[in-house]
Design brief:
- The chain has helices at residues 48-63, 81-97, 99-137; strands at residues 4-8, 19-23, 32-33, 40-45.
- By secondary structure, it is of the alpha+beta class.
- The protein has 2 domains: 4-97, no CATH class; 107-138.
- A 4-stranded antiparallel beta sheet has the order 1-4-2-3, with helices on one face.
- Helix 1 (48-63) crosses helix 2, helix 1 crosses helix 3 and helix 2 (81-97) packs across helix 3.
- The protein is globular.
- The model has no long low-confidence stretch (mean pLDDT 88).
């Protein structure tokens, strides 16, 4: 039995259980989000640990472009809730069956994500320094 539920998010609704959101329209369909947007699904779980596991599992699927074959639509691409659920359950079952290797891979993805955030912050500071340097010389 899975330890998460997926539903369509209604704007303005709040959730008490640990949760995150998945974008369901556009080329970034399948991207997990911390904050809601109008076109997203919500995934709720019983514990924070389950939420984090499913979040990084979803993030890994998004980075690996596993959602792309499920995209439908001619103008605005989207993924259905059933396709998203099917993909997540399949990946979750594989994760459960090979827990040690999967946990190691998810930890590596978390580590890389943290390093990426640090680098983005450093680039932001470098750009601010560049602007300050240029402004002080003119």
């Amino acid at each position: 039995m899975s330890n998460f539920e997926i539903k369509t998010h209604n704007v303005g609704r709040t959730y008490t259980k640990p949760h995150f959101f998945i974008l369901n329209k556009g080329l970034n369909s399948g991207k997990p989000l911390e904050n809601p947007c109008p076109n997203c699904f919500v995934i709720t779980s019983q514990t924070e640990e389950d939420k984090n596991t499913v979040f990084y599992l979803c993030y890994s699927l998004y980075l690996g472009r596993y959602f792309k074959p499920f995209l439908k639509g001619s103008v605005i691409l989207f993924i259905t809730i059933n396709d998203c659920l099917k993909l997540l359950k399949t990946a979750h079952l594989k994760h459960i069956n090979n827990r040690s290797k999967s946990n190691n891979n998810l930890n590596k993805v978390k580590f890389i994500e943290e390093k990426e955030k640090i680098l983005k912050e450093q680039l932001k500071l470098i750009n601010q320094l560049k602007v300050a340097f240029i402004r002080s010389n003119f």
